[in-house]
Amino acid sequence: MKLLGISCGRRMGNSEILLREALMGAAESGTETEVLSLLDVDVKPCIGCKVCQAEITGKEYCVIKDDAVFVWNKIMDCDGLILSGPVYCLTPPGYLLVIRDRLFGSKSDVAWMMERKKLKEQGEKVFVDERCFKTRPGAFISVGGSVTPDWLSLGLSIFQTMTFSIQLEVVDQMMVMGTNIVKGQVLLDDAAMARARKLGYHVAEAMGKPGPEMKWRGDETGTCPVCHQNEITIKGKNPVQCPICGIYGELKIENGEIKVVFSEAEQKRSRLTLAGKMEHWNEYHPADPEKAWKLNQTSTMPPAKQAQYMNEITRKMAKYKADKPCTKP
Question: What confidence score (pLDDT) does residue 54 get?
């Protein structure tokens, strides 16, 4: 089995060094490892053409010709995945997010792929990559120059937005602070290096196990027990929401400590779970499109009204097409 490490930082920078240390820890148990630096690939943004050949005939038929298929195949062929990167403006670098938006989301969502498989068996022309159904463990490494987490707040959680569609079972994560100024500065932090090695071992240990047996091995449970992140959306009163999982909980203060309680039912509908992804599929593919449209439960136009609405859109769109063109270099 192969463990893939993806670096989205400088070549031999602190995040890549920590990633390599994690992979060395995994290799001690006999796991085959591979490193992919995103600085070595050219992946252009999705242009939203809405005639996505990636969903009909496969990602290699995308109208954009670059290294996206190479990256996709590397991720699909691995049995475990570690993402490591620096924090720029509170988040990992933008080119990681370009890859996320190009390759993942509904185009690669496991639940959507399961439903497409049913459609394909019924004769519809859709693409199904069977490798999406493989359960893989994973982990995240986030590195920042700030000595407090104040400027690194989305470094770990944004990684989740790249991996939840393929049902990556995240078993560990770590944040390293104060080590992104000098290239290689993290080598002076023995504790961080040891923790990275341990993280790699945790992923290797989980590889090949069924999803339910891939247990969380991180140092902290986090406010949300599903994604293990601490971001919470509060709108003045309960319930509050985990923005990563999309689930609701009750905020409580007990003995001066703040905590959020998520019911078992809510945890099961997290978008990190298959049930949560299926909920999203049903939103776009309701059993009764006309009723769901009237109740604002879907953004998918009911077939009986599509011609009417498209004519209205075309008429109203003329105003904007006649407007000034976008500024170009």
Answer: 64
Q: What is the pLDDT of residues 223-251, one digit of tens each?
A: 999 999 999 999 999 999 999 999 999 99
> pLDDT of 30-54, one tens digit each?
999 999 999 999 999 998 887 676 6
CA 106, 111, 115, 121 dihedral sign is: positive
Helix (H, G, I), strand (E, B) or coil at 310: helix
What's the whole-number average pLDDT of the chain? 94
pLDDT at 53: 62
Quick check: 302 and 293 in contact, CB under 8 A?
yes
Task: Characterize the bridge pairing of strands 240-242 and 247-254.
Answer: antiparallel
Burial of 218 (0-12, 13-18, 19+ CB in 10 A): middle
Q: In what order do the strands lie in the sheet with 32-37?
A: 32-37, 2-7, 80-86, 137-143, 169-176
* CATH fold label, 1-219: Rossmann fold (3.40.50)
Q: Which of 92, 213, 212, 115 is nearest to 162 (CA)?
A: 92
Q: Give φ, ψ of 254 to 5 degrees.
A: -125, 120
Locate the domains of the chain by residue range. 1-219
Note the pTM of the prediction, 2 decimals.
0.94
Block residue for tokens 């990559």: 129
Query: What is the mean pLDDT of the segment spanning 129-158?
Result: 94
CA distance 1 to 9: 25
Chain-centroid distance, C-alpha 238: 27
